[in-house]
Specification:
Bound molecules: 2-acetamido-2-deoxy-beta-D-glucopyranose
Protein name: Sema domain-containing protein
InterPro entries: Ig-like_fold, Plexin, Plexin_repeat, PSI, Semap_dom, Semap_dom_sf, WD40/YVTN_repeat-like_dom_sf
CATH topology of the domain at 164-175 and 186-390: Methylamine Dehydrogenase, Chain H
Low-confidence stretches: 1-5
Number of helices: 5
Distance between the termini: 58 Å
Subcellular location: Membrane
Mean pLDDT: 87
Strand content: 35-45%
Domain Sema: 1-390
Number of strands: 30
Keywords: Disulfide bond, Glycoprotein, Membrane, Signal
Helix content: under 10%
């Protein structure tokens, strides 16, 4: 199963499967019965080529909706890099049913700026992730700044879900480390940080106020300048939105200037800064959250206004995948590597790797998925899918080896004498009955007083 070959999306009861195997044509399958193909056609020509025929061209997508007249359709929004035999559409909206002149998989929005543009082929977009939040769709990708400059930078772009002209499409550069050493996104994941990580993020002063249930974008990066290492950086979605609004507002109302510095440009147009205005009313960015035909677009932040995450989690080798879960209020990152491992990292003020899973040797694909009960993780490589449990507490049979795991999922269940998740330990709500592994403390029974007691008598025992 090739990473680039497959794009899987879930909508209600339909599974969309796309692959380079069929020149990028997609099919629809029944999610309750994936063997059942509901739709596949290779006679509709170019319009049904959603993915790329080239394996090196990565495709990402999310389900969204599109309204027309009184109708509301499920569509999927696709971000795709440029392959030499493909259309130049960076972003497209694909319908999943026949409607009027449209057939399944038709690209139903024409927005020349991000679809038929001479710049597109020079930017070498590499889409890595797409997600939806609060009425917006986001894409995470790297690209260059044009022909002269072949250096890669990472961006997150955002647009409104039902934006039929892509007027709200805006790109924000993401820097990882203060020097942006880690410049090329490889994989990303959105999750709540949980209380402990949220507190650390807030205290660090780098991320603004972060709460346990906020969404945070976790991104792994490689470094073009130093291919021997990679890093993971975190960006609260709230901070991404706030910075995007600043950039958009600068262009709509302040000639593109923030703090006396030019903050914004138009990556897909030859007219550059003159596109921003100074005489429109001040609250245009608020009033036109999804842009409008008369407002400038698409916009991108200049590097000086990139959103920067200053203290990345750095590792030797390449981290090619990321997924994050929260257990006991603590965030755990599962980081896939180019050498086929999945590193387990307890994200705290000082992130600590406490374990590894699966070591098969093949690069872990960027899509790591939890099952619906969050008990298992699906790890995919070029050749196979492996399902591994998120924890294996029960393998440890005494308190010390349980505690030595330093695994946020595990703890020593005193009354049962077992290493378990908290939810699997009876009476774990009582004090000192379940000893959380990362706390590194076993309760030892040093001495009894009195040393023995008849089981027929009731007396106070001191330990
Ligand atoms: C999908 O599969 C389920 C279970 O086999 C079946 O009940 C349902 O009718 C199928 N849906 C379609 C659209 O064929
Ligand atoms: C269309 O459907 C989506 C998803 O079901 C929903 O979120 C959205 O509000 C609907 N839009 C309209 C205009 O009905
Ligand atoms: C940018 O990334 C591409 C792969 O997407 C790579 O081939 C190229 O060498 C990178 N550019 C630089 C300057 O390292
Ligand atoms: C603009 O400058 C102020 C004061 O130096 C600073 O607090 C603020 O973060 C700057 N804005 C941006 C978007 O960099
Ligand atoms: C982001 O990184 C680039 C170098 O890649 C640098 O020029 C720019 O100033 C950085 N932006 C911020 C806000 O640190
Ligand atoms: C129990 O303790 C008593 C003293 O309290 C002692 O005399 C007796 O030998 C102990 N019995 C055993 C089986 O240890």
């Amino acid at each position: 199963m090739m990473e680039q070959r497959w794009l899987w999306l879930f909508a209600l009861d339909v599974l969309v499967v796309c692959g380079s195997v069929f020149r990028g044509i997609c099919s629809l399958r029944n999610l309750s019965n994936v063997e059942q193909q509901l739709y596949f056609s290779d006679t509709k020509g170019e319009k049904s080529y959603v993915a790329s025929a080239e394996e090196s061209v990565s495709v990402v997508g999310v389900m969204s909706y599109f309204t027309k007249d009184k109708d509301n359709f499920t569509v999927f929004l696709v971000g795709k890099g440029y392959g030499s035999h493909d259309s130049t559409k960076l972003i497209s909206t694909r319908i999943l049913q026949d409607y009027g002149d449209w057939v399944v998989f038709d690209s139903i929005i024409e927005a020349s700026a991000v679809q038929a543009n001479p710049f597109v082929l020079r930017y070498l977009h590499d889409f890595r992730f797409a997600f939806k939040d609060g009425g917006f769709v986001y894409f995470v990708f790297s690209r260059t700044l044009g022909v002269q400059d072949t250096k890669n930078f990472t961006f997150v772009s955002r647009m409104c879900e039902d934006d039929q002209g892509y007027y709200s499409y805006t790109e924000l550069q993401l820097n990882c480390s203060t020097t942006n050493k880690y410049n090329k996104a490889q994989a990303a994941y959105v999750a709540a940080p949980g209380q402990a990580l949220a507190d650390h993020m807030t205290k660090s002063g780098q991320y603004g106020a972060v709460s346990a249930s906020d969404k945070v974008l976790f991104v792994t990066f490689t470094s073009d300048e130093d291919p021997s290492t990679s890093a993971m950086c975190m960006y609260p979605v709230r901070s991404i939105n706030a910075r995007l609004v600043k950039i958009i507002d600068a262009c709509y109302s302040h000639s593109g200037i923030i703090n006396d510095t030019s903050a914004v440009y138009s990556p897909y147009s030859s007219k550059s800064e003159e596109l921003c205005s100074s005489n429109s009313p001040k609250n245009m960015a608020e009033r036109y959250k999804c842009g409008a035909e008369f407002l400038p677009s698409p916009l991108a932040s200049k590097a000086e206004f990139a959103l920067t995450a200053g203290s990345p989690f750095v590792r030797k080798g390449h981290m090619t995948a990321v997924a994050v879960a929260v257990e006991m209020g603590h965030a755990v990152a599962f980081l896939g590597t180019a050498t086929g491992e999945v590193l387990k990292v307890h994200l705290s003020a000082h992130p600590e790797m406490y374990g590894r899973a699966s070591s098969e040797g093949d690069k872990v694909n960027k899509n790591l998925l939890f099952d619906s009960s969050l008990q298992h993780l699906y790890i995919t490589t070029e050749k196979k899918i492996t399902k591994v449990p998120v924890q294996a507490c029960h393998m440890k049979t005494d308190c010390h080896s349980c505690i030595n795991l330093k695994d946020p999922y595990c703890g020593w269940c005193v009354l049962e004498g077992k290493c378990t998740r908290k939810e699997d330990c009876r009476r774990s709500e009582e004090e000192n009955t379940w000893l959380w592994s990362p706390n590194q403390q076993c309760v030892e029974i040093k001495a009894f007083n009195p040393p023995n007691l008849s089981c027929k008598k009731t007396r106070q025992v001191r330990m």
